[in-house]
Amino acid sequence: MTDGTTLTVYGEGELAARAGRLFDGATREFFCAAADLHTWSRPEARSGFVSRLRSGPTGRLAVRKLYTPAVLADEEQRLHLFDVAAAGGQVRLRAATLPHEAIVIDRRVMILAGRRGPRGREFTITTSSTLVGSVHALMRATWDAGVPLADCLRRETDGLDADSLAVLRALAAGLTDSVGARRVGMSLRTYRRRVAEVLSVLDADSRFQAGVHAGRLGLTGGST
């Protein structure tokens, strides 16, 4: 302890042991800013957070998660963000460097992520109202300049015309090529060429991945 309100711990294990209860104790606001999901938690902790969010008092608790676009490069992290959004949390991305990697809970306690060292990553926990208020203001300004996750994902389809979007919907529906081609009114050869174009634009490794992406964007169902 330094001044009675600040504590420094090292490594995620010690952070969980000394401050884990804080993550479950949020009642008004849970505000997280990080480069990616690896800053704060292991995969099992992430799934636990989503479960609590789904069953918690979402009407009172505002959950805000702010990341850099690097978080979208990893499929597991992308899916977690989709889950958070589906459970009622707000997710935004900001290309500029974040002022701090931090978590602020109910504007009364803050956890700052520091540098990595021999003892693990350094985390500072504080209830200093001055520090908490200052960092929260910086985070909020960065949040306001961020782009909602859904808007970022929609931009990924900017290179697709109406026919390609129809093909994407067919992929999301899990249709075979022959059935998909008939649904969108294309020859089988043209349909397959369009599928290849869609995969390229979305940087998807498979038709299934492209279909999942379409589902997350709400491009499911319906006919053309």
Structural write-up:
It is a single chain. Strand 5 and strand 6 form a beta hairpin. Strands 1-7-6-5-2-3-4-8 form an 8-stranded mixed β-sheet, with helices on both faces. The model has no long low-confidence stretch (mean pLDDT 81). The chain has 224 residues and is of the alpha+beta class. The protein contains 9 helices and 8 strands. It folds into 2 domains: 144 residues, Endonuclease Chain A (Endonuclease, Chain A); 61 residues, Winged helix-like DNA-binding domain superfamily/Winged helix DNA-binding domain (Arc Repressor Mutant, subunit A). Helix 6 packs across helix 7, helix 6 packs across helix 8 and helix 6 packs across helix 9. 47% of the residues lie in helices and 19% in strands.
Q: What brief labels describe this structure?
A:
single chain, alpha+beta, Endonuclease, Chain A, Arc Repressor Mutant, subunit A, 2 domains, 9 helices, elongated
Summarize the SSE layout with pairings.
Elements: E1 6-10, H1 11-24, E2 29-34, H2 43-55, E3 62-67, H3 75-86, E4 90-93, E5 102-105, E6 109-117, E7 120-126, H4 129-144, E8 147-148, H5 149-155, H6 162-172, H7 177-184, H8 188-202, H9 207-216
Parallel strand pairs: 2-3, 3-4
Antiparallel strand pairs: 1-7, 2-5, 4-8, 5-6, 6-7
